[in-house]
Amino acid sequence: MSNRNDILEGLKDCLINIPSVKDVVRKFIFFDQVTTFPYLMVLGGDETFDDNLGDSTVSRMSVRIMGYSKSAQEPEKEQCILIGEVLTYLNNTTYNTVKDHMRPIGIETDEGQLFANGDGVSIFVLNLELTYRFERSAP
Fold this sequence. Notes:
The chain has a single domain (3-135), classed as STM4215-like, CATH 3.30.2000.10. It is 24% helix and 40% strand. The chain is an alpha+beta fold. The longest helix is centred in the middle third of the chain and has 16 residues, at 75-90. It has helices at residues 3-15, 75-90, 114-117, and strands at 23-25, 39-53, 56-70, 102-109, 121-135. It contains three helices and five strands, in the order H-E-E-E-H-E-H-E. Strand 2 (39-53) and strand 3 form a beta hairpin. The protein has a five-stranded mixed sheet. The relative contact order is 0.23.
């Protein structure tokens, strides 16, 4: 396994502990393929490397936590609840083993635009940056 994979699996394992969440996966799923809500996805993004440290390299990896929630009456309220739960668990060192190497850098939401077409589905994307060090031979 790679450091990258271990980090993404660790985030998935952290978020699966949220009692209200029905499933957490490591791939992108379209909302119309989801049958149980709330639903979370952990998606690894770009990495940049800084090789100025002798034998080791510092990586800055972007990660997206995407979430679908659903409520026919109050989709944005359900979305806010889910975002709050995700942030709470990501800030808990019991569940998140990479908390000290991570920082949230932004949240994007659908602003309720999926509501009409998605039967109450709402989506958010939490963007994180994780920094870790590795030996050049083992990214």
